[in-house]
Amino acid sequence: MVVFIRSNDIVSDPRAMKYINFMAREGVPCRRIAWDRYEKASEEANTVYYHKKAGFNVGGVKAAFNKARWMIFVVKSLKKMNLSDDVLHGCDLDSAFPAVVYRMLYNRDVKIVFDVFDWYTATLHDQNILFRLVFRIMERITVQQSDYIIICEPERIKQIPYRLKKAKLSVLPNIPYFDSDFIMEEDSEYKFDNDLITLSYVGGFAPERCLEEIIDIAEEGLVNLNIAGYGLPCIEERIRNLKGRPNIKYYGKVKYEEGLSIMYNSDVIYAMYATTNPNHVFAAPNKFYEAMMLGKPLFTTKGTIVERKVMEMGIGYVAGESKEEIVNVIKQLSKNDMLLKGEESHRIWESKYKTYTDEYMKNVYSQIIKRQSI
């Protein structure tokens, strides 16, 4: 049996659901320990929920105590399960570390998978030095004690400052994964009655994503903007107030398939980051692979591994994080070049990434959860 642990509701997490869906198809027994952060989760079979309201990407003492309570809950929940030689799959430090604590205290026979969605101490780059020290120690213990480590891009190995055996490390990128083929088609709902270039952003309204800048640029009438998602109230309110403009459309929170349709009906997919955040420098975004699948160029940030991939493959555009730099790149875009980059992007998807997830699950992950060497 696999016990899958994630500090969110799991069902809304695309990367987590890749594993869950694979195990369901293969008939692998699986239990889940999840955090119901909005206190709205409906009861799911084989799922133990930690019901405690909390935000995401929040720092400070309160957030640290919330993490500590969650980790204690995980250890207690594992103890109640009467496990034997099962596999504990912990997503990120706050799920993998309590799995390690459980093994050290109660059950030496379990195997631990440390799935590094984000390198945790990098998210604390602007937090108290004592917090960073404590979590750094936790990371070191977790890396040393885990039987397998999964990262989402090969470049992210640079974030792990500890020696690793190659046999325990594997890579599963954040590649879109579907139970059925997504139908890509033009839709007038997402089109504009002008000749401006259309950019799309679908995702969380979070800080350090250069959203205010692209909204400014759209408000000034330089581009069309299709935008969907939710998050920071100030951005939600601002975009709601602007959605009546002829070159701005806001769709709120949408289902994944609708988000793909919005992006497919744009010229460029917008995915900017902040180089002051170490995890953003090493970002492994869904949007990079979604853009390839959809055959669209990506617009991203200088100084990131996404920039390097985009430029090496010739499948997008890069800019600095200021509004002025973003505008300068936008002014140089041409419809023909965007089409060519989109075609190359889709060609790479078809030849390299379309079957990657299936092959990884069948050839690597299946061996991990069978407790065989890889």
Describe the structure.
The structure is a single chain. This protein is of the alpha/beta class and 374 residues long. The chain folds into 2 domains: 2-172, Rossmann fold (3-Layer(aba) Sandwich); 188-353, Rossmann fold (3-Layer(aba) Sandwich), CATH 3.40.50. Helix content is 42%, strand content 17%. It is built from 14 helices and 13 strands. The longest helix is centred in the first third of the chain and has 20 residues, at 61-80. The chain is globular and about 65 Å long.
How helix-rich are the residues, as a percent range?
A: 40-55%
Sheet/helix structural class: alpha/beta
> Do you know the CATH architecture of the largest domain?
3-Layer(aba) Sandwich
Q: Poorly predicted ranges (pLDDT <50, ≥5 residues)? A: none
Q: How would you classify the quaternary structure?
A: single chain
Shape designation = globular
Provide the number of structural domains.
Answer: 2
What would the CATH topology of the largest domain be?
A: Rossmann fold
For this structure, what is the CATH class of the largest domain? Alpha Beta
Main pleated-sheet profile: 7 strands, parallel
Strand residues, percent: 15-25%
The end-to-end distance, rounded to whole angstroms, is: 18 Å
Rg to the nearest angstrom?
Answer: 21 Å
Whole-number mean pLDDT: 89
Number of helices: 14
The total count of strands amounts to 13
Q: Give the ordered list of helices and strands.
A: EHEEHEHEHHEEEHEHEHEHHEHEHHH
Order of adjacent strands in the largest pleated sheet? 3-2-1-4-5-6-7
CATH homologous superfamily designation of the largest domain: Glycogen Phosphorylase B
